[in-house]
């Protein structure tokens, strides 16, 4: 009887085994690793600190700079996201990281800390002299590649948690110096722990300049992220990874009044305490949200990328490239364009997306993320179509992220309708607004939006 029944079940048993094989292949795995990229000041010195003026020579190290990577796999090719304590890394250096990580797709996003070595060439000893030390850039590339490889090798069966926080309190951590006053203040968190219980790592996506220490500091630091990493790792264990968001136009804590919970008074500006209050608070909010989140099951990780060509109208960039400031990186194309990568990441269960990220190669104005582009009098392109806001209109998953400085740093990405390089100035201001001087040109935003529209589809 038994035998007969088993024979009878043959085909359906085979089908059941096939069915079982599919989820087994799509087992979710994760790993994380961190490698220091703090420069030895003797080996790499003088180290020019990036982000404010020229010739800010590092006199010491306050806290460790690192490349922090989180590897994820749903059975197919793994994907690694690395947040790197750096002002910005160009596509040329990111390509070097990818060469070292053949077994996975890699996203490299500089955190944009303004207390890290000049890896972009704009903040050297004097105007027109590069601050890049090629040996240090190579070291960053090697260490980031090594962290990514280690994260992939350490992958184990894991549980994913997704969470987000958007409190009115968060709007108080920004000082926006250019209208419209728009923040993408939401914190989005992607946390993974081992299925058998141990911590692995947590990626936090938020949009604010790590420049809380200001322009007079001469100690290398991850800025507020130094405290963020320490606090998040204390709370959740594993490796904390930070990926910045739409930080353009100008998302900065510098002018914000941030209350120190220890004194009830505003934390002193440009101080490590100011950075600590900010970083620790963001970490606490992220950790709290993760602790409340249930597991999110995914069986697909999709990563798409495209290289686009953006018309380069910024003469300053062209001159800087010709003067060798970028040390053979970032060469404009013969047709007057600049190449940059645009990418898209989706975590899904079947056809249902659970989390998405738009990968943007620079500092996007938050209007392009959460909406609110304004048509001000004085705009150079008053009839320019409005780019659809990425997090509000183009992505649909319950958790939507925008990775700024992703795989490249081309500077500000400004809504074309707000572009203003010619008088009269926006809102009839008496002087020009800050922004365009650090942008490739007015077509950066529409070209990136167009690429994302087709990548997201
Ligand atoms: Zn910036």
Question: Which key terms come to mind for this protein?
Answer:
457 residues, 24% strand, alpha/beta, globular, 11 helices
Please provide a brief summary of the model.
This protein is α/β, with parallel strands linked by helices and 457 residues long.
Q: How helical, in percent, are the residues?
A: 25-40%
| Mean pLDDT across every amino acid position | 94
Q: Helix segment count?
A: 11
Strand order of the largest sheet: 5-4-3-1-6-8-9-11
Gross morphology:
globular
What compounds sit in this structure? zinc ion
Work out the number of β strands.
18
Order of helices and strands: HEHEEEHEHEHEEEEHEEHEHEEEHHEEH
Compute the separation of the termini in Å: 54 Å
Q: How can the largest sheet be summarized?
A: 8 strands, mixed
Poorly predicted regions? 1-24
SS-based structural class?
A: alpha/beta
The value of Rg in angstroms is 23 Å
């Amino acid at each position: 009887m038994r035998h007969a029944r088993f024979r009878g079940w043959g085909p359906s048993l085979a089908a059941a085994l096939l069915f079982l094989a599919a989820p087994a292949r799509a087992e979710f795995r994760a790993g994380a690793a961190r490698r220091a990229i703090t420069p030895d000041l003797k080996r790499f010195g003088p180290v020019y600190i990036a982000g404010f003026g020229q010739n800010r020579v590092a006199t010491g190290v306050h806290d460790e700079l690192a490349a922090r990577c989180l590897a994820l796999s749903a059975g197919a090719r793994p994907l690694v996201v690395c947040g790197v304590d750096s002002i910005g890394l160009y596509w040329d250096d990111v390509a070097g990281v990818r060469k070292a990580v053949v077994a996975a797709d890699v996203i490299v996003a500089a955190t944009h800390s303004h207390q890290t070595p000049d890896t972009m060439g704009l903040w050297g000893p004097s105007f027109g002299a590069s601050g890049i030390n090629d040996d240090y850039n190579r070291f960053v590339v090697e260490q980031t590649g090594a962290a990514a490889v280690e994260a992939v090798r350490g992958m184990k069966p894991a549980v994913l948690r997704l969470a987000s926080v958007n409190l009115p309190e968060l709007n108080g951590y920004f000082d926006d110096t250019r209208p419209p006053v728009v923040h993408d203040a939401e914190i989005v968190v992607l946390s993974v722990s081992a299925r058998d219980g141990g911590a692995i790592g947590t990626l936090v996506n938020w949009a604010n300049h790590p420049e809380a220490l200001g322009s007079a500091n001469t100690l290398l630091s991850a800025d507020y992220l130094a405290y963020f990493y320490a606090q998040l790792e204390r709370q959740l264990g594993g490796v904390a990874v930070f990926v910045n968001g739409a930080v353009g136009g100008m998302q900065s804590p510098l002018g914000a009044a941030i209350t120190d919970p220890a004194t009830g008074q505003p934390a002193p500006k440009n101080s490590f305490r100011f950075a600590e209050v900010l970083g620790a608070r963001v970490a606490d909010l992220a950790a709290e949200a993760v602790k409340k989140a249930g597991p999110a099951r995914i069986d697909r990780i999709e990563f798409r990328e495209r290289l686009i060509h953006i018309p380069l109208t910024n003469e300053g960039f062209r001159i800087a490239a010709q003067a060798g400031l970028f040390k053979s990186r970032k060469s404009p194309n013969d047709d007057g364009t600049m190449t940059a990568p645009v990418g898209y990441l989706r975590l899904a269960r079947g056809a249902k997306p659970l989390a998405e990220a738009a990968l943007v190669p620079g500092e996007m104005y938050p209007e392009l993320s959460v909406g609110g582009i304004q048509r001000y009098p004085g705009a150079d392109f008053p009839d320019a179509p409005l780019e659809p806001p990425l997090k509000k209109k183009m992505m649909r998953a319950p958790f939507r992220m925008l990775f700024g400085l992703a795989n490249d740093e081309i500077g500000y990405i400004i809504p074309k309708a707000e572009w203003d390089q010619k008088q009269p100035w926006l809102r009839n201001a008496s002087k020009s607004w800050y922004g365009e001087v650090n942008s490739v040109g007015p077509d950066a935003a529409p070209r990136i939006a167009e690429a994302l529209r087709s990548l997201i589809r």
